[in-house]
Amino acid sequence: MLYDLTVPAYANGLRALSAQLDKALAWGAANNVGELQFIAARLAPDMFPLAAQVRFACLQAVQPLARLGAAGAPALAEDAADFGGLQDQIAATLAWLDTVDAATVDTDPARPISFDLPNGMAFDMDAKSYIRDWAQPQYYFHLVAAYAVMRHMGVPLGKADYVGYMMQYLRPGTAPTA
């Protein structure tokens, strides 16, 4: 159950983020917006820049599964300095997600999960609550923040860029023609 709620969703979101970054890089080249401008761009002065949002999206896909017992997580200690680095972080995370064993993650949804934040806050909850109430919201927050930074910079992204993986479920003959 926990595997099905995490690994496929994380992979879908990270693949979409990778495609958004490709689109941003191409748009930036055509509109004189350099990689470093994107890397440093942020939505508000007290928010992290795009490079951190991408790294945090990857971390938020890795940390919950590692806390649930998945081994061999990639090290994502620093923000990338360019789009190649952003894509490398996403690729490393996706490659690791492919190795995560469902049986390890799904052992017991009631097992205790504890974690501390750098600011000193500590949380204790069961695995199911952890995934539902912490892991998923954290992951999607950083995924959306990265998307929003690129939109803020002018990249013509839309909802289809965010959830492009949904096209696999599209009923034939129902796509808009105009």
TrEMBL record:
Q: Which residues form the signal peptide?
A: none
**Family matches, as Pfam families:** DUF1993
- The domain of life is Bacteria
The protein in question is named DUF1993 domain-containing protein
Q: What organism, scientifically named, is this protein from? A: Sphingopyxis granuli
Q: What is the lineage of its organism?
A: Bacteria, Pseudomonadati, Pseudomonadota, Alphaproteobacteria, Sphingomonadales
